Task: structure prediction
Amino acid sequence: MVIEDIFKALADPTRLRIARLLSAMELAVGELAQVLGQSQPRVSRHVGILCDAGLAERRREGSWVFLRQSEASGPVIEAVQRLLALAEESEPEFAALCEADRRKLAAIREARESAAEHYFARHASEWDELRALHSPDAEVELRLGEALADAPLGALLDIGTGTGRMAEIFAGEADRVVALDKNLEMLRVARAKLQHLPAAQIELVQGDFADLPFAPASFDTVLLHQVLHFAPDPAPALAEAARVLRPGGRIAIVDFAAHDREELRDRHQHARLGFSDRQMAELLHAAGFAASPPLALAGGELVVKIWLGKRRAAAPSPRTPALETTR
Result:
């Protein structure tokens, strides 16, 4: 960061507006172009200048590029952000521009929510059918919260976030939440659900649970909620979870106990028909976790289990071979 670059970056009305918009929420370049009424290439050039100056950050999600206010700390960046807020308070013309931009931004938020509602409408019958087979979601969420309440969550990774429900529940308890999913459409649904949270508190990332795009020891808590049954081989996913956890960090797995509902393979793409406690204990041990006694939530044809583990000081390599286990 060079101070001259910061002042040059701010010496343009469009970049000032972008900086204020990014203080409200993370936005795609195309969304910024829509709000500003400018072409996407032109907005991309402005964004590049802000990023080079350390005032904004890019994040790629598939073919989309999202922008957010820089998370870099330091007195200069913090002073610039305070200055922009003060300028909006004291300069009527700038304030009017920012207010108009936020009205357009509100329309974008409404469009996101509408798209999410349509997605749920298309898939509601499938999800309702599956929910009817197991314990009520509210009970599962309550028991999971209780199971994790004995220690701070710290930095939390929600693997396979889906609609973002788990990230939303735990955002208030964690220092920050990273919500990861492989499916871009589901990430857009999650973004609509989580957009009321501060951009610095929540991050959405596209990625595969068997190849997490994070450095080792990046998180204090990892959550896999109704995700692991999609993995033909759960071992690499758990080894990756161990890799990105700090020593002593916790993993919570919410999934089905072993069952024989074969139709779930075709109708809901379940690769595994649940897990036995022995299987899960072996998987956790092989991945580098010390397992705690599991919790069972009956109340339906499918029993939901919560398996907990704590990362040992030295976790195995993420290339740990799969265990030969049976249902």
User: Anything to note?
Assistant: Confidence is low (pLDDT under 50) at residues 318-327. The two ends are 55 Å apart (CA to CA). Residues 92-131 form the longest helix (40 residues).
